[in-house]
């Protein structure tokens, strides 16, 4: 199967389908959604096929496609997947159909809306499979444009400002990435992530940057640190990491809930993926030098966002800050691994535990956060757009299925043992306690505050006296139950048997640890 260009086809189908759907301006809302669901089902089938044929026993790249693209610039078309990539491909293939189903019949420009969703999916697939900066960056930017228009055209009353803020923040980060990689390409003649990682580990990248890139008389080490900061900025904005997070709450709140499912479930993972695929392998020495500051930023991201979520009274803003909090644990694990400070088998085991937890947390958070915003959409549909913490009460009496299923997602987000959120956080803290104990201890404050605000949500919305305004609020329909069923099943499955995901990624993690250890 390696000779079959499955990764190119996986990326091309939603891209071509998106452009075709946008050109089909005469399509009704129902026709546009039906076409989008059909087109999104094909990548889901291909992703499952990849999973079935993926060999988890090796950390090497698989399904590799490599062709010379622009010979004069030394640019190749280079794609492939390992454990990290396949987990993100599977997540993207699951969440996008959920979002399309949850969108309902878009009343305004349905073909344009669903076409943009498919373009976004194509950009995500390209980002998670590309291994050379030139076309990786094309897909990275391609995912930005559909998200911007989905917020601006179909968002809430403050959608224009939120979309513009989102675009400017992420574009500034992209400029940092572009300048940094232009400097590295000028110094090394390569856009290949693997080649750059080898040069970075050996110290040759610093030497070449010092010889080639002359900036204000700075040394090679100082130039490399500037390049590192440019790459870091691009990914820190995307996750986002404190203090680059201020665009996120308004963007998530103003976007429609199905669009927010894509933003939090998938696009935020692009930043974490970049830290793992690019920053950590290429700049291990710079990560170690900056480790104390980076760990403090991760701790602040976890704790500050948890307190911010606790202060919210709008459900979407609460879940937006909760998303920052949960991704902060991923960054905590990455920065603790990058801090170095030890070697040997025991140290490598703790690094592997932390990174396995990060990858598991990425997948689990994508599922859980997408499901939570999907439930917010169901609530908005029934209440005329209301989503305030104080707008409801006692819903468990009249909508037990809705409250039960949403409660599962809330407890999964909280990290309840037996559900998918527990294993990833446990592995992260297991590793980080050994690698950077002070950061792990401070971050546990975020766990406590998260439990408080999520349990407060359950109490205020599901329990207490019934608000008579909602006495006839309908429970979930059969179609709505089907939308959240796959995510709910996976929450239990990965909670009881996390090895289903860890088994896919462990050899990739072992290889990553081997490469960054001195």
What is the number of helices? Answer: 21
Biggest β-sheet: count, sense, barrel? 2 strands, antiparallel
Low-confidence stretches: none
Q: Decide which structural class fits the backbone.
A: mainly alpha
Cα radius of gyration in angstroms: 22 Å
> What percent of residues adopt helix (DSSP H or I)?
over 70%
Kindly describe this structure.
The protein has 518 residues and is mainly alpha-helical. The protein is 76% helix and 3% strand. The protein contains 21 helices and 2 strands. It has helices spanning 6-23, 29-53, 83-102, 110-129, 133-154, 159-188, 193-202, 204-212, 220-238, 248-254, 257-282, 284-289, 291-311, 315-338, 345-383, 395-398, 400-414, 420-435, 437-462, 478-496, 499-516; strands at residues 62-70, 75-81. It has a two-stranded antiparallel ribbon. β1 and β2 (75-81) form a beta hairpin. The longest helix has 39 residues, at 345-383. The chain is globular and about 70 Å long. The two termini are 36 Å apart. The model has no long low-confidence stretch (mean pLDDT 90).
Blueprint of the fold:
Layout: H1 6-23, H2 29-53, E1 62-70, E2 75-81, H3 83-102, H4 110-129, H5 133-154, H6 159-188, H7 193-202, H8 204-212, H9 220-238, H10 248-254, H11 257-282, H12 284-289, H13 291-311, H14 315-338, H15 345-383, H16 395-398, H17 400-414, H18 420-435, H19 437-462, H20 478-496, H21 499-516
Keywords, separated by commas or semicolons:
518 residues; two-stranded antiparallel sheet; globular
